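Sequence only, no structure available. Ideas?
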Amino acid sequence: MNYRHAFHAGNFADLVKHAGLLALLGALQAEGSPLQVIDTHAGRGMYDLAGAEARKSGEAQAGVARLMAATDAPAAFAPLKRAVAGLNPGGAVRRYPGSPWLVAERLRAGDSLLACELRPDEHAALTALLKGRPGVRTLNADGYAAAPREIRAHGRALVLVDPPFERADDYPRMVELMAALQRRNGAAVALAWLPLKDLETLDAFLRELEEEVRAPLLVAEARMRPLADPLKMNGCALVSLGAPAGFGPDLEAICRWTTAALGQDGAARVYRL
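Reply:
I predicted one. C-alpha coordinates follow.
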Protein backbone atom coordinates (compact mmCIF):
# COMPACT_ATOMS: atom_id res chain seq x y z
CA MET A 1 0.00 0.00 0.00
CA ASN A 2 1.45 3.34 -1.06
CA TYR A 3 0.31 6.06 1.33
CA ARG A 4 2.10 9.13 -0.09
CA HIS A 5 0.31 11.58 2.10
CA ALA A 6 -0.27 14.46 -0.29
CA PHE A 7 -2.93 12.30 -1.97
CA HIS A 8 -4.71 11.54 1.28
CA ALA A 9 -4.30 14.65 3.46
CA GLY A 10 -7.52 15.57 5.24
CA ASN A 11 -9.25 12.26 4.59
CA PHE A 12 -11.28 10.33 7.17
CA ALA A 13 -8.17 8.58 8.49
CA ASP A 14 -6.46 11.91 9.13
CA LEU A 15 -9.51 13.09 11.07
CA VAL A 16 -9.40 10.03 13.34
CA LYS A 17 -5.62 10.18 13.75
CA HIS A 18 -5.27 13.91 14.32
CA ALA A 19 -8.33 14.37 16.54
CA GLY A 20 -7.15 11.35 18.54
CA LEU A 21 -3.61 12.71 18.75
CA LEU A 22 -4.78 16.10 20.01
CA ALA A 23 -7.07 14.49 22.59
CA LEU A 24 -4.22 12.33 23.87
CA LEU A 25 -1.80 15.25 23.87
CA GLY A 26 -4.26 17.34 25.86
CA ALA A 27 -4.77 14.55 28.40
CA LEU A 28 -1.02 14.14 28.90
CA GLN A 29 -0.36 17.87 29.14
CA ALA A 30 -3.10 18.16 31.76
CA GLU A 31 -0.92 16.03 34.02
CA GLY A 32 1.38 19.03 34.26
CA SER A 33 5.00 17.94 33.90
CA PRO A 34 7.07 18.53 30.72
CA LEU A 35 6.34 16.19 27.83
CA GLN A 36 8.65 14.92 25.10
CA VAL A 37 6.89 14.16 21.80
CA ILE A 38 8.43 12.13 18.97
CA ASP A 39 6.78 11.81 15.55
CA THR A 40 8.38 8.87 13.72
CA HIS A 41 6.98 9.56 10.23
CA ALA A 42 6.32 13.29 10.22
CA GLY A 43 5.90 14.06 6.51
CA ARG A 44 6.09 17.68 5.38
CA GLY A 45 3.82 19.03 8.09
CA MET A 46 1.40 21.01 5.91
CA TYR A 47 -0.62 20.06 2.83
CA ASP A 48 -2.18 22.08 0.01
CA LEU A 49 -5.63 20.63 -0.60
CA ALA A 50 -5.83 22.58 -3.85
CA GLY A 51 -2.73 20.76 -5.13
CA ALA A 52 -2.82 18.21 -7.92
CA GLU A 53 -2.46 15.20 -5.60
CA ALA A 54 -5.31 16.17 -3.27
CA ARG A 55 -7.59 17.15 -6.17
CA LYS A 56 -6.93 13.83 -7.87
CA SER A 57 -8.01 11.75 -4.88
CA GLY A 58 -10.88 13.97 -3.67
CA GLU A 59 -10.46 12.51 -0.21
CA ALA A 60 -10.24 15.85 1.58
CA GLN A 61 -13.63 16.90 0.24
CA ALA A 62 -15.11 13.71 1.67
CA GLY A 63 -13.22 14.21 4.94
CA VAL A 64 -12.11 17.50 6.47
CA ALA A 65 -14.41 19.63 4.30
CA ARG A 66 -17.41 17.73 5.66
CA LEU A 67 -16.11 17.92 9.23
CA MET A 68 -15.71 21.68 9.02
CA ALA A 69 -19.26 22.06 7.71
CA ALA A 70 -20.76 19.71 10.32
CA THR A 71 -22.72 21.03 13.27
CA ASP A 72 -23.01 17.70 15.10
CA ALA A 73 -19.34 16.73 15.50
CA PRO A 74 -18.48 15.86 19.13
CA ALA A 75 -16.37 18.10 21.32
CA ALA A 76 -13.35 15.83 20.84
CA PHE A 77 -13.01 17.28 17.32
CA ALA A 78 -12.90 20.89 18.57
CA PRO A 79 -9.08 21.23 18.77
CA LEU A 80 -8.65 19.93 15.23
CA LYS A 81 -11.44 22.14 13.89
CA ARG A 82 -9.88 25.20 15.53
CA ALA A 83 -6.48 24.39 14.02
CA VAL A 84 -7.92 23.94 10.51
CA ALA A 85 -10.05 27.09 10.81
CA GLY A 86 -7.00 29.10 11.88
CA LEU A 87 -5.15 28.04 8.74
CA ASN A 88 -8.11 28.83 6.48
CA PRO A 89 -9.53 32.20 7.58
CA GLY A 90 -11.48 32.61 4.35
CA GLY A 91 -13.66 29.61 5.12
CA ALA A 92 -12.75 27.29 2.25
CA VAL A 93 -10.43 24.53 3.43
CA ARG A 94 -7.29 24.77 1.33
CA ARG A 95 -4.53 24.04 3.88
CA TYR A 96 -4.46 20.99 6.13
CA PRO A 97 -1.97 20.52 8.99
CA GLY A 98 0.03 17.38 9.55
CA SER A 99 0.81 15.93 12.97
CA PRO A 100 4.12 17.79 13.54
CA TRP A 101 2.49 21.18 12.96
CA LEU A 102 -0.43 20.29 15.22
CA VAL A 103 1.90 19.22 18.01
CA ALA A 104 4.26 22.18 17.58
CA GLU A 105 1.32 24.56 17.97
CA ARG A 106 0.40 22.97 21.30
CA LEU A 107 3.82 22.78 22.95
CA ARG A 108 4.19 24.45 26.34
CA ALA A 109 7.37 25.80 27.90
CA GLY A 110 9.46 22.74 28.76
CA ASP A 111 7.80 20.48 26.17
CA SER A 112 9.71 19.29 23.13
CA LEU A 113 9.04 17.77 19.71
CA LEU A 114 11.33 15.64 17.57
CA ALA A 115 9.87 15.18 14.07
CA CYS A 116 11.55 12.43 12.02
CA GLU A 117 11.18 12.17 8.24
CA LEU A 118 13.18 9.86 6.00
CA ARG A 119 12.51 11.41 2.57
CA PRO A 120 14.94 14.31 2.00
CA ASP A 121 12.44 16.48 0.09
CA GLU A 122 9.72 16.01 2.69
CA HIS A 123 12.22 16.66 5.49
CA ALA A 124 13.38 19.88 3.82
CA ALA A 125 9.79 21.15 3.64
CA LEU A 126 9.18 20.13 7.25
CA THR A 127 12.32 21.89 8.46
CA ALA A 128 11.33 25.11 6.68
CA LEU A 129 7.81 24.93 8.14
CA LEU A 130 8.96 24.47 11.75
CA LYS A 131 12.09 26.63 11.63
CA GLY A 132 12.58 28.82 14.69
CA ARG A 133 10.00 27.16 16.93
CA PRO A 134 11.29 26.68 20.49
CA GLY A 135 11.60 23.09 21.60
CA VAL A 136 11.22 21.70 18.06
CA ARG A 137 13.82 19.66 16.21
CA THR A 138 13.60 17.79 12.89
CA LEU A 139 15.67 14.80 11.88
CA ASN A 140 16.20 13.34 8.39
CA ALA A 141 16.22 9.74 9.60
CA ASP A 142 14.35 6.47 9.91
CA GLY A 143 11.93 7.13 12.76
CA TYR A 144 11.77 3.47 13.73
CA ALA A 145 15.48 3.57 14.56
CA ALA A 146 15.59 7.15 15.87
CA ALA A 147 12.74 7.03 18.40
CA PRO A 148 14.22 4.42 20.79
CA ARG A 149 17.55 6.22 20.61
CA GLU A 150 16.14 9.71 21.17
CA ILE A 151 13.48 9.05 23.79
CA ARG A 152 14.40 10.01 27.33
CA ALA A 153 15.06 7.15 29.74
CA HIS A 154 12.94 8.89 32.39
CA GLY A 155 10.03 11.33 32.35
CA ARG A 156 6.90 11.51 30.29
CA ALA A 157 6.97 10.96 26.54
CA LEU A 158 4.49 10.50 23.69
CA VAL A 159 5.50 8.75 20.46
CA LEU A 160 3.30 8.88 17.35
CA VAL A 161 3.96 5.99 14.95
CA ASP A 162 2.35 6.70 11.59
CA PRO A 163 4.23 4.94 8.75
CA PRO A 164 3.27 5.24 5.08
CA PHE A 165 2.86 1.44 4.76
CA GLU A 166 5.00 1.26 1.64
CA ARG A 167 7.07 -1.62 3.06
CA ALA A 168 6.10 -5.17 3.94
CA ASP A 169 7.88 -4.95 7.31
CA ASP A 170 6.00 -1.95 8.72
CA TYR A 171 3.86 -4.08 11.05
CA PRO A 172 6.73 -6.02 12.69
CA ARG A 173 8.81 -2.85 12.93
CA MET A 174 5.95 -1.11 14.73
CA VAL A 175 5.82 -3.95 17.23
CA GLU A 176 9.60 -3.84 17.71
CA LEU A 177 9.51 -0.07 18.16
CA MET A 178 6.75 -0.06 20.77
CA ALA A 179 8.49 -2.80 22.75
CA ALA A 180 11.80 -0.91 22.56
CA LEU A 181 10.15 2.30 23.76
CA GLN A 182 8.68 0.53 26.77
CA ARG A 183 12.04 -1.03 27.64
CA ARG A 184 13.76 2.33 27.40
CA ASN A 185 11.13 4.36 29.27
CA GLY A 186 8.36 2.61 31.16
CA ALA A 187 6.36 5.85 31.33
CA ALA A 188 6.27 6.30 27.54
CA VAL A 189 2.92 6.50 25.77
CA ALA A 190 2.72 5.38 22.13
CA LEU A 191 -0.02 5.98 19.56
CA ALA A 192 0.13 3.88 16.40
CA TRP A 193 -2.00 4.42 13.30
CA LEU A 194 -2.82 1.54 10.94
CA PRO A 195 -4.95 1.16 7.81
CA LEU A 196 -7.83 -1.26 8.30
CA LYS A 197 -8.24 -3.53 5.30
CA ASP A 198 -9.11 -6.87 6.89
CA LEU A 199 -9.42 -8.05 10.48
CA GLU A 200 -6.74 -10.74 10.28
CA THR A 201 -3.99 -8.21 9.58
CA LEU A 202 -5.03 -6.10 12.58
CA ASP A 203 -5.54 -9.15 14.81
CA ALA A 204 -2.10 -10.52 13.90
CA PHE A 205 -0.51 -7.17 14.75
CA LEU A 206 -2.32 -7.03 18.09
CA ARG A 207 -1.33 -10.60 18.97
CA GLU A 208 2.32 -9.87 18.30
CA LEU A 209 2.13 -6.58 20.21
CA GLU A 210 0.52 -8.24 23.25
CA GLU A 211 3.38 -10.74 23.33
CA GLU A 212 6.03 -8.00 23.33
CA VAL A 213 4.67 -5.29 25.64
CA ARG A 214 3.42 -5.42 29.22
CA ALA A 215 1.20 -2.35 29.48
CA PRO A 216 -2.53 -2.47 28.60
CA LEU A 217 -3.44 -1.51 25.05
CA LEU A 218 -6.34 0.66 23.93
CA VAL A 219 -7.61 -0.18 20.42
CA ALA A 220 -9.97 1.94 18.33
CA GLU A 221 -11.36 0.71 15.01
CA ALA A 222 -13.07 3.10 12.62
CA ARG A 223 -14.62 0.84 10.00
CA MET A 224 -15.90 3.04 7.19
CA ARG A 225 -17.52 0.13 5.36
CA PRO A 226 -17.84 -3.64 5.89
CA LEU A 227 -14.46 -5.38 5.66
CA ALA A 228 -15.43 -7.27 2.53
CA ASP A 229 -12.58 -6.33 0.17
CA PRO A 230 -9.07 -6.69 1.65
CA LEU A 231 -7.59 -4.80 -1.31
CA LYS A 232 -9.27 -1.57 -0.17
CA MET A 233 -8.61 0.64 2.83
CA ASN A 234 -11.92 0.01 4.57
CA GLY A 235 -11.10 2.05 7.64
CA CYS A 236 -8.31 2.72 10.09
CA ALA A 237 -7.27 1.86 13.61
CA LEU A 238 -5.44 3.58 16.44
CA VAL A 239 -3.58 1.47 18.98
CA SER A 240 -2.33 3.18 22.12
CA LEU A 241 0.17 1.88 24.64
CA GLY A 242 0.01 3.39 28.13
CA ALA A 243 -2.71 5.96 27.40
CA PRO A 244 -4.47 7.57 30.39
CA ALA A 245 -7.94 6.27 31.26
CA GLY A 246 -9.68 9.49 30.18
CA PHE A 247 -8.54 9.08 26.58
CA GLY A 248 -10.97 6.24 25.80
CA PRO A 249 -14.25 8.22 25.73
CA ASP A 250 -12.82 10.91 23.44
CA LEU A 251 -11.46 8.28 21.07
CA GLU A 252 -14.78 6.47 20.99
CA ALA A 253 -16.65 9.70 20.20
CA ILE A 254 -14.22 10.47 17.37
CA CYS A 255 -14.54 7.04 15.77
CA ARG A 256 -18.32 6.82 16.16
CA TRP A 257 -18.94 10.19 14.53
CA THR A 258 -16.50 9.55 11.68
CA THR A 259 -17.97 6.17 10.76
CA ALA A 260 -21.58 7.36 11.09
CA ALA A 261 -21.18 10.70 9.29
CA LEU A 262 -18.61 9.82 6.64
CA GLY A 263 -18.82 6.05 6.25
CA GLN A 264 -21.06 3.67 4.34
CA ASP A 265 -22.64 1.15 6.71
CA GLY A 266 -19.67 1.80 8.96
CA ALA A 267 -19.09 0.87 12.59
CA ALA A 268 -16.74 1.84 15.41
CA ARG A 269 -15.17 -0.30 18.13
CA VAL A 270 -13.05 0.86 21.06
CA TYR A 271 -11.73 -1.76 23.49
CA ARG A 272 -8.84 -2.61 25.81
CA LEU A 273 -6.51 -5.57 25.65
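The mean pLDDT is 94.
Hope that gets you unstuck.
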